[in-house]
């Protein structure tokens, strides 16, 4: 076979790496959907966000199935694969993924689609089992106490010394981040690490000069 015949067969008549029949397509789609459904259930059970995004979770299933279909198509025809690469190169996703765990599940879903589409469903199953074991094991570890911001409003700027003394007695770490003083008020924002937030708040509220206190966590939640 000459060079012209090879080029014609590869680029014009289609280049197939293997016989991809209907049974192969159905099996690949079934395996991908089954693993994606498992990812859906796992994400729903371990999600710790205040608002569970069901649409994002559903997109994990669709992402895996669509990716596997793309991989199957790329394997069957090199012309289609080149067109697919060109089409995907101009697609831009502008939705920001704020939670790193969401990003991990998104990449996991895409990887399952790629692996199953390439015909290595066993690897996808083993990798999913390993991921589950790691997620469950590390999620059972005790969480380290993160720093929070203590906001104190007092009726006198002279109360700062007494407030900071009480804060240091109840916290392992305390650093003043903001201080707003007037003749009749004091506003403090202190970054603290404490095991007993309730004791700290109650101790501050027992002071006559303290009007209000609140603890602001890094994710925006407020406890008082």
Written overview of the protein:
Helices cover 57% and strands 15% of the residues. It contains eight helices and five strands; from the N terminus they run ααααααβαββαββ. A hairpin with a 5-residue loop joins strand 4 and strand 5. Helix 2 packs antiparallel against helix 5, helix 3 runs antiparallel to helix 4 and helix 3 packs parallel to helix 5. The chain is elongated. The C terminus is likely disordered. By secondary structure, it is an alpha+beta fold. Strands 2-3-1-4-5 form a five-stranded antiparallel beta sheet, with helices on one face.
What keywords describe this structure?
5-stranded antiparallel β-sheet; single chain; 8 helices; 224 residues; alpha+beta; 15% strand
What gyration radius follows from the Cα positions, in whole Å? Answer: 28 Å
Give the helices and strands as they follow along the chain.
HHHHHHEHEEHEE
Number of E-type strands: 5
Number of helices: 8
**Biggest beta sheet attributes:** 5 strands, antiparallel
Q: What is the residue-mean pLDDT, rounded to a whole number?
A: 77
Poorly predicted sequence stretches spanning 5 or more consecutive residues: 6-16, 220-224
């Amino acid at each position: 076979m000459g060079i012209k015949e090879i080029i014609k067969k590869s680029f014009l008549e289609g280049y197939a790496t293997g016989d991809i029949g209907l049974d192969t397509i159905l099996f690949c789609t079934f395996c991908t959907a089954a693993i994606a459904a498992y990812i859906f259930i796992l994400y729903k059970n371990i999600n710790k966000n205040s608002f569970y995004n069901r649409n994002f979770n559903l997109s994990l299933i669709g992402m895996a199935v669509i990716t596997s279909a793309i991989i199957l198509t790329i394997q069957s025809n090199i012309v289609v694969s080149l067109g697919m690469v060109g089409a995907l190169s101009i697609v831009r996703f502008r939705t920001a993924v704020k939670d790193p765990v969401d990003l991990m599940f998104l990449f996991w879903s895409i990887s399952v689609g790629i692996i199953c589409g390439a015909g290595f469903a066993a690897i996808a199953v083993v990798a999913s089992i390993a991921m589950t074991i790691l997620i469950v094991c590390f999620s059972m570890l005790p969480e380290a106490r993160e720093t929070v911001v203590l906001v104190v409003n007092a009726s006198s700027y002279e109360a700062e010394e007494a407030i900071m003394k009480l804060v240091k007695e109840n916290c392992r770490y305390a650093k003043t981040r903001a201080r707003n003083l007037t003749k009749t008020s004091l506003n403090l924002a202190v970054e603290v690490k404490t095991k007993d937030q309730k004791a700290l708040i109650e101790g501050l509220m027992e002071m006559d000069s303290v009007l209000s206190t609140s603890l602001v966590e890094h994710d925006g939640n407020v406890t008082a």
